[in-house]
Design brief:
Layout lengths: L9 H6 L7 E4 L3 E5 L7 E7 L6 H7 L1 H18 L4 E4 L15 E5 L9
The structure holds adenosine monophosphate.
Adenosine monophosphate binds next to loops.
């Protein structure tokens, strides 16, 4: 685990290879793996390897890294689906965030409805 890792962070453990994941793509600073409980035919989580709690924290700390997350999400959706996708960042428990290491949900492979609540 790198010095950037947070203690007891599931996604830091996946980045470090300490917890298995179905990795579909990676770059120097970003990794993408399949969600363990998919909500669409393609449901991939795109995660910066460095620990940041949510998307606003990441955007403030390293906007270029946020752009790398978006770029890898687009690559995944193009490679594993038709390049059309929904990108979701849940921020805070009431918005559905359960893992407090920022991650983009890439949802694709079907016509998506809109029922967030
Ligand atoms: P969120 O609720 O937005 O924080 O998203 C966390 C996501 O992580 C959920 O969609 C979970 O299904 C997913 N998840 C939890 N544990 C794992 C795991 N070990 N491997 C892959 N995805 C996971």
């Amino acid at each position: 685990m790198t010095s950037d890792a947070a203690a007891d962070c599931l996604f830091c453990k996946i980045v470090a290879g300490q917890v298995p994941a179905d990795v579909v793509a990676s770059s120097e600073r970003v990794i993408a793996f399949r969600d363990i409980s998919p909500k669409a035919p393609v449901h991939v989580l795109v995660v910066p390897k460095q620990h940041h709690g949510d998307v606003a924290v990441l955007a403030a700390a390293d906007p270029a890294l946020l752009a790398e997350v978006v770029a890898l999400a687009d690559e995944v959706a193009t490679e594993h689906s038709d390049g059309q996708y929904r990108l979701i960042f849940n921020s805070g428990p009431r918005a559905g965030q359960s893992v407090f290491h920022v991650h983009a949900h890439v949802l694709s492979g079907a016509r998506l409805g809109w029922t967030p609540a």
